[in-house]
Design brief:
Shape of chain A: globular
Largest sheet of chain A: 9 strands, mixed
Structural class of chain A: alpha/beta
Number of strands of chain B: 16
Helix content of chain A: 25-40%
Distance between the termini of chain B: 57 Å
Strand content of chain A: 25-35%
Oligomer: heterodimer
Order of helices and strands of chain B: EHEHEHEHEEEEEEEEHEHEHEEH
Chain lengths: 258, 320
């Protein structure tokens, strides 16, 4: 079985994340960038299946700037057999539609039985790409899964939906997305880190994928305005001397909050 | 059937497994009402049409539900889009809603804007307003041409539309035959609580790892009940099993913007703050004086929640 795991490089949520007020784009040089945790969990789903089924090929795929290679290398160190890196200057600031077209095209080119993605990233938090990919690839989507069972022909699991929990299943090939209810990813071993250096990373460009970023017959979403909100400031801070609960009650009542 | 107003806004209303309109219905129709004439689409029972009209839908389109996950809804949306030719399509940023919107955008080659907290019009059409990076930035987005498909953050819209006389029309939907996952079983979530729902709540009391155990988390519930607040939690508290994941506030949980947010035993990791820092007033109680939550708290108490909170509850009850 061939499983492609989609991973994303995101600004570290432990650091200050910045947007450029001129372009509206994430300032990638502004802080640390890391492999999104949900993508690591997605990779763990694929790797734990591969542990039990040695004829499984796990590929990590990412559309990201050239500098994001470290996040793919981490995926290789964790155990993926190869990586696909889609890099193209014209993809800077790509909207969801273009991103989906590019990834779908790369997935078609590489082939897959199962595509595993996180349900939503920590930066864009759109939660829509897996569904968009399934629509483009004409395969079923089993999304927002909090448990996953994979067999040779089928994938199933528990979907944490809005006001219900459902059990859903799909025949392969399929796209799935997983939630953070699934287990933490393994740490790369020393052996894995050494082995990653010899694993192939294939680079793909838009031209190679036959995708036109300026497609005239499809609409794009664009940012037309951006403002930075002033940072919140700390207010009163008291240390409990035995009456803090009463003082807090007064504060809430005076501000009509209780 | 082509007499739709030129400023029509097509709104997909989610139905719950128990056969009611989802809570997002009122705010979606409210948002649509601020920029045009709300036309609702319900994929399911025609009995919900009257509820939709009461919430402001000028016309309610009803499509038969089909088999499989999401696809029948997208097929119905595509048919309604063709019929109504709206200025925008609004869908809840719920799990079901956003995936339907996503597929519709792909299928109709439309621009997609996600997780909007408001919509308005400019000279060129409908634009969407977003909060990015946990509210640190406000961003306005538009589409290059065509009908924008916009998913709306739940609990973010205060506008409500005036009730309209029911004008219900059944629409015919041609199944696209796109492959769908099958739904093997559904467990409707049991809502046993009488507390307000976390999304859109005016007040939220949230607990973190500092509560120490699932039993002791009851302290959060008690203060929430005295304040009439919804109950939230940090990811640490959810991961520790003190409370269900549906109460998680933050980066990967629910984003809230209440009048009052009370953080009990929450250190205030940046991922948590991303989901609550747009609250109007933030109160924090934590025994660690260096907890980052104090950097954004309007009123911070350095102390033991197990002594401060019971005293607070007693003081509030005495005043009532």
């Amino acid at each position: 079985m061939k499983i492609v795991v989609l991973v994303k490089e995101v600004p570290d949520t432990y650091a200050d994340r910045k947007l450029s007020l001129e372009t509206g784009l994430a300032k990638r040089d502004g802080g640390e960038n890391v492999l999104d945790e949900i993508g690591e969990r997605a990779l763990e789903v694929a790797l734990s299946y591969a542990d039990k089924h040695p004829d499984t090929e796990v590929v990590v795929m990412s559309m990201s700037p050239a500098t994001a290679i470290a996040t793919l290398t981490k995926g290789l160190a964790m155990g993926a057999a190869s990586a696909v890196h889609i890099v193209d200057e014209t993809l800077l600031g790509a909207d969801l539609g273009l991103t989906a077209e590019v990834l779908a095209s790369a997935l078609r080119k590489k082939g897959f039985d199962l595509v595993v993605a996180g349900n939503l990233s920590t930066d864009g938090s759109g939660g829509v790409l897996p569904a968009m990919l399934a629509e483009l690839l004409e395969v079923p989507a089993a999304t927002a899964l909090s448990t996953v069972e994979i067999d040779e022909h089928r994938v199933s699991g528990t979907r944490a939906s809005d006001s219900a929990t459902m059990t859903i299943s799909a025949l392969l090939p399929a796209v799935i997305s997983i939630t953070e209810a699934l287990p933490d990813a393994r740490f790369p071993s020393f052996k894995g880190i050494m082995a990653a250096k010899r694993k192939p990373i294939e680079m793909l460009s838009l031209a190679g994928l036959g995708v036109d970023a300026e497609r005239p017959d499809g609409a794009r979403s664009i940012i037309i305005d951006i403002t930075e909100k002033s940072a919140r400031k700390a207010g009163v801070k008291i240390t409990d001397q035995g009456d803090a609960g009463e003082k807090l009650a007064v504060f809430l009542l005076e501000n009509r909050l209780a | 059937m082509t007499d739709f107003s030129a400023d029509s806004i097509l709104v997909l209303l989610d139905a719950t497994p128990s056969g009611k309109l989802a809570n997002s219905a009122a705010e979606l129709l409210g948002a649509a009402g601020t920029i045009g004439t709300p036309i609702a689409l319900i994929v399911g029972s025609a009995q919900l049409a009257e509820d939709a009209a009461n919430l402001g839908a000028a016309t309610v389109l009803v499509a038969e539900p089909g088999d499989g996950l999401t696809i029948p809804t997208v097929d119905a949306l595509a048919a309604a889009l063709e019929l109504v030719r709206p200025d925008a399509v609004l869908v809840a940023h719920s799990v079901e809603g956003r995936e339907a919107a996503a597929r519709l955008a792909v299928r109709t080659r439309s621009g997609l804007a996600v997780d909007a907290i408001g919509v308005s019009r400019d000279d060129e059409g409908v634009v969407a307003h977003h909060l990015v990076y946990g509210g640190a930035y406000s961003v306005t987005s538009a589409v290059t041409f065509g009908v924008p498909i916009i998913t709306m953050r739940q609990g973010a819209i205060n506008a409500r539309a005036e009730a309209a006389a029911p004008d219900v029309r059944k629409i015919d939907v041609t199944a696209s035959g796109k492959p769908a996952a099958s739904i093997d079983s559904v467990d409707a979530a049991v809502i046993a609580s009488t507390r307000p729902e976390l999304r859109g709540a005016a007040k939220v009391v949230a607990g973190g790892r500092g509560l120490g155990s699932a039993e002791q988390f009851a302290l959060v519930d008690r203060l929430a009940d005295v304040l009439g607040a919804a109950v939230g939690a940090s990811r640490a508290a959810v991961d520790a099993g003190y409370i269900a994941q549906s109460h998680q506030v933050g980066q990967t949980g629910v984003s809230v913007a209440p009048e009052l947010y009370v953080a009990l035993g929450i250190s205030g990791a940046i991922q948590h703050r991303a989901g609550m820092q747009t609250a109007k007033t933030i109160v924090a109680i934590n025994k660690d004086a260096d907890a980052p939550i104090f950097e954004i708290a309007d009123y911070g108490v350095v102390g033991d929640i197990f002594t401060v909170v019971p005293q607070l509850i007693a003081a509030l009850e005495a005043k009532k």
